[in-house]
Design brief:
140 residues
């Protein structure tokens, strides 16, 4: 549940159009503010408080400065270990983002499962087979 400082009862429920912030080297950076909070009717997440983005390791210095100007102090990295290793091996990025003044907090949702497009497609194909082993793995 969000802390009281994360929501604002005065924020209208309508979302900004679009909520995106254009940053060089960072895909899909956007403000999550404005979304209604289901457990607190008539309340929404405060704007310019929580942001999300795609993989940020190619951010330019200008993009990092913009992020800092938005007040970002922490990056919560939800990627799995296989996703980070895959980025490192492919040469697409260093795999981990560390910027002075912004703390990286590693909190993978699934530490050892990869959720890249190929892994997801393979997993879905396995699920369609419907074997007991596949169902057992899906529950763990």
């Amino acid at each position: 549940m969000a802390s009281p400082s994360a929501w604002n009862p005065e924020t209208p429920a309508s979302l900004p159009t679009p909520p995106f912030v254009t940053l060089s080297g960072i895909p899909n950076f956007r403000d999550l503010g404005g979304w209604p909070i289901a457990s607190w009717p008539h309340h929404s997440v405060r704007r310019n408080y929580v942001f999300r983005c795609g993989e940020p390791t190619k951010a330019t210095d200008e993009a990092v400065e913009k992020i800092k100007s938005l007040g970002v102090k922490h990056i919560f990295d939800l990627r799995s270990n296989p996703e980070i290793r895959q980025h490192q091996l492919s040469g697409r990025s260093a795999g981990v983002t560390n910027w002075p003044g912004v703390e990286r907090v590693y909190v993978p949702v699934f530490p050892e499962d990869s959720y890249d497009p190929l892994s997801i497609a393979t997993r879905h194909a396995d699920y369609q087979k419907g074997t007991t082993e596949v169902r057992r793995r899906a529950l763990h």
